[in-house]
């Protein structure tokens, strides 16, 4: 079992951090929303959610509607074979699988400061030799803020900037959290864990549960995390004074050598919820170190390998399936709406030229 990262606690101050956390939640969601009701304009849909993201973050043609600022990375996954006990997916057989990835900070503003939110995100696409892919989009928090898609949409609405101030109304944000007690685990975790000083010393979590089936036909509910070999350290004010400190640090570290994380598979016990991303499973659950994620170098996002990848977490190889968590189908549809909009904008308006000149991430 891989050693878990140790995070030094900081004094909780939940009320005074609600506005900042509201922005994090807005950004974290990405597409964790409900996609039912396509035939009814009064019901929630991925289009309405993406429209609300744009209302909250502003118009940035050609960019992802969430995680707009990021950097492409390339590497591979070295499987030690241990994961085959849970899944028949080729990626868990002993050997190496190619990886295209993307680090990002949450939010729809491609020019945001890296220190504007305390959460980091990692997305990966692992391509097996048979062509099947495992795509995953992870965050540096082990729980999500809401249980239902309707709650997420309400949170987005609460975070829409007031035209008079250009910022969310703190009273509306506070009221949202007060009306939704399911948000407490997320709020408490963020309040007690200082943000990491680097993209490479943070752990990243699947948050949602998935169903793994092995070669013998045995199925288990699984969540995963990637745990860094680099020791955690909290961010400092000096670091955040650099608008792009996370991407600058990443490039510098990769120039010194590959960066590594261990892929940890956590197995649910009977009764553990698989449809509620706000609830952590107990810490004594079985864990399997399935191998090492190795990232070698970055690529410019304007033409890097990750630019045109939709990191839809329901694109999975045989041996892995989505669980009954309703957020998964919602993420898939919302990601598709965002992808279609930004690629259409690039084709129609030559947004790539703007990205090249601005240096922003797509």
Report on the structure:
Helix 1 crosses helix 3, helix 1 packs across helix 5 and helix 2 packs across helix 8. Strands 1, 2, 3, 4, 5, 6, 7, 8, 9 and 10 form a 10-stranded antiparallel β-sheet that branches. This protein has one domain: Beta Barrel (Catalase HpII,  Chain A, domain 1), CATH 2.40.180. 29% of the residues lie in helices and 21% in strands. With 362 residues, it is α+β, with helices and mostly antiparallel strands. The two termini are 36 Å apart. It has 9 helices and 10 strands.
Question: Features of this protein?
Answer:
29% helix, 21% strand, 362 residues, Catalase HpII,  Chain A, domain 1, ten-stranded antiparallel sheet, alpha+beta, single chain, globular
C-alpha geometry: globular
By DSSP (H or I, 4+ residues per run), the number of helices equals: 9
At CATH level 2, the architecture is: Beta Barrel
What is the CATH fold-level name? Catalase HpII,  Chain A, domain 1
What's the name of the CATH homologous superfamily?
Catalase core domain
Summarize this structure briefly.
This protein is an alpha+beta fold and 362 residues long.
Write the topology of this structure.
Layout: H1 14-29, H2 46-57, E1 69-79, E2 95-105, E3 121-127, E4 133-139, H3 149-158, H4 170-179, H5 184-192, E5 204-205, E6 210-213, E7 219-228, H6 237-240, H7 245-256, E8 259-267, E9 287-299, E10 320-322, H8 326-349, H9 351-358
Antiparallel strand pairs: 1-2, 1-9, 2-3, 3-4, 5-7, 6-7, 6-10, 7-8, 8-9
């Amino acid at each position: 079992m891989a050693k878990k990262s140790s995070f030094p606690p900081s004094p909780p101050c939940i009320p005074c951090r609600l506005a900042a956390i509201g922005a994090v939640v807005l950004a974290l969601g990405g597409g964790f929303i409900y996609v039912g009701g396509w035939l009814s304009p009064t019901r929630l849909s991925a289009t309405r959610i993406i429209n609300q993201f744009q209302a909250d973050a502003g118009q940035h043609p050609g960019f992802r509607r969430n995680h707009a600022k990021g950097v492409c990375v390339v590497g591979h996954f070295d499987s030690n074979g241990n994961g085959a006990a849970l899944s028949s997916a080729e990626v868990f057989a002993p050997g190496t699988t190619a990886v295209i990835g993307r680090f990002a900070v949450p939010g729809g503003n491609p020019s945001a400061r890296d220190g504007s939110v305390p959460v980091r995100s990692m997305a990966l696409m692992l391509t097996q030799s048979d062509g099947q892919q495992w795509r995953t989009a992870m965050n540096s928090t082990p729980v999500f803020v809401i249980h239902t898609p309707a709650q997420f949409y309400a949170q987005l609405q609460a975070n829409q900037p007031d035209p008079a101030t250009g910022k969310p109304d703190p009273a509306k944000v506070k009221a949202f959290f007060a009306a939704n007690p399911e948000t407490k685990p997320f709020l408490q975790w963020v309040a007690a864990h200082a943000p990491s000083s680097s993209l490479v010393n943070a752990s990243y979590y699947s948050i949602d549960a998935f169903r793994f089936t092995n070669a013998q036909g045995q199925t288990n509910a699984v969540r995963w995390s990637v745990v860094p070999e680099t020791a955690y350290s909290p961010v400092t004010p000096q670091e955040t004074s650099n608008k792009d400190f996370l991407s600058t640090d990443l490039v510098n570290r990769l120039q010194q050598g590959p960066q590594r994380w261990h892929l940890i598979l956590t197995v649910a016990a009977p009764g553990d919820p698989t449809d509620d991303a706000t609830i952590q499973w107990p810490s004594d659950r079985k864990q399997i170190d399935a191998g090492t994620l190795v990232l070698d170098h970055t690529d410019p996002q304007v033409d890097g390998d990750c630019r045109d990848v939709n990191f839809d977490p329901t694109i999975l190889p045989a041996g892995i399936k989505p669980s009954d968590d309703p957020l998964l189908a919602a993420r898939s549809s919302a990601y598709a709406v965002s992808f279609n909009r930004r690629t259409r904008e690039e084709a129609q308006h030559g947004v790539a030229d703007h990205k090249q000149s601005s240096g922003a991430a797509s």
